[in-house]
Write a structure and sequence with these properties.
The chain has 362 residues and is α/β, with parallel strands linked by helices. The chain has 12 helices and 15 strands. The structure holds phosphoenolpyruvate (PEP) and manganese (II) ion. The site of manganese (II) ion has 5 residues, from loops.
């Protein structure tokens, strides 16, 4: 831990910091950083919160982390992730949208057109679903994935799809743009390692019962396998609350962004479990600094075999996109889809879609 002291801290205030550290059983050495002084500690204590309140302390920098490769991604301005011509970064708000599950090619094509028209930057759709009951629809497998790829190429939006078994990886290697690792597989370490080896972006969802260190350690497996294209996704955790499906941990967004340079996005659909809550949670996520959103959309949710209650209608999704783009523009963020000319992205291939304004224009 490194404790940076205020320039104008007097001797008594400085001594109070040293005494506090020694009281926690830590050994302390003093280093000069130009005109400033920092105290460098050794020891197992984690008194960061109480130290930060001492008048002499300007900043407490935690250097001990269980996930050193994840922490190292902060260096050099972070690790933006590109999937096709779509960018996830601290300068963009990148919206991934589509059905929970790929059910038929016609509906998929319809959804893709609608979310693109509304301003989505990438598609989502599950071919291998992770269902709580073995009696529920498990997804259409490789054929569904081929349909998603075809629709993605037709509409010009790259896509993410979920893998849940290391044995799927080689079969989909040439098909997928980005791999989603679902919440229930966050600690499926062989899957993380195998998927990482594809060298494609990995959208890693937090397990509903994982703490943030465990989440970072899961990302660490992907980084350790040599793949730095990791997007972290908060999707709600289990809590005492029964009126929402999961509790969206909005605080995880700034916490993670302070500690790692990987894009952090939010899934308000699975957190809410109900379409009426999704837009508000999406706005909260963007206000908290999320680099993107992943949202389930369906034109006729009553027809879908998976997650019907949380799917947004295309109209509600379009309004959500307008609202979150306005919020994002306040902090200078632009859309994640990069136009081939490198300028403001235009979503409609024929130019008839809504023009996404750059931060400067917004
Ligand atoms: C999904 O994205 O469809 C999904 C099942 O999400 P999660 O893994 O977060 O439950
Ligand atoms: Mn779903």
């Amino acid at each position: 831990m490194i404790i940076l002291l205020h320039l104008d801290a007097g001797p008594a205030q400085r001594a109070a910091v040293r005494e506090a550290l020694e009281g926690f059983g830590m050994s302390v050495s003093e280093v000069s950083l130009g005109a400033r002084t920092a105290l460098v500690t050794e020891g197992d204590g984690h008194p960061a919160a109480s130290l930060a309140r001492l008048p002499a302390v300007e900043q407490v920098i935690q250097t001990e982390t269980p996930a050193p490769l994840a922490a190292a991604t902060l260096a050099g301005g972070g690790r933006p992730v590109s999937v096709g011509t779509t960018l996830f970064s601290a300068e963009t708000l990148t919206i991934v949208a589509g059905p929970c599950t790929i059910e038929d090619a016609g509906t998929l094509r319809e959804i893709a057109g609608l979310v693109k028209q509304a301003g989505a930057d990438a598609l989502r759709g599950g071919a291998y679903k992770v269902r709580t009951s073995p009696h529920q629809f498990q997804g259409g497998g490789i054929e569904a994935l081929q349909e998603l790829r075809a629709v993605s190429r037709e509409c010009g939006l790259p896509f993410f799809t979920e893998l849940n078994d290391p044995r799927q990886v080689s079969a989909v290697a040439d098909l997928v743009d980005g791999v989603q690792i679902g919440a229930r597989h966050m600690q499926n370490f062989p899957l993380l390692t195998e998927a990482a080896k594809l060298g494609k972006p990995i959208l890693l969802k937090r397990h509903m019962s994982a703490d943030l260190d465990e989440f970072l350690l899961a990302a660490e497996y992907i980084l350790d396998a040599g793949n730095e294209q990791v997007i972290l996704c908060e999707r709600g955790i289990k809590s005492a609350e029964r009126h929402v499906r999961y509790l969206l941990d909005v605080g995880a967004v700034p916490w993670l962004k302070e500690r790692v340079g990987l894009p952090v996005i939010v899934d308000p659909s699975h957190a809410a479990g109900h379409h009426r809550l999704v837009p508000a949670l999406a706005r909260a996520a963007v206000a908290a600094g999320a680099d993107g959103l992943i949202i389930e959309v369906h034109p006729r949710p009553e027809e879908t075999r998976c997650d019907a209650l949380q799917a947004l209608s295309p109209t509600t999704f379009a309004q959500l996109v307008t609202d979150v783009r306005r919020l994002a523009a306040l902090t200078g963020r632009r859309a994640g889809k990069v136009a081939s000319d490198g300028g403001a992205a235009e979503t409609g291939a024929s130019g008839d879609g809504p023009v996404l304004r750059t931060a400067a224009e917004a």
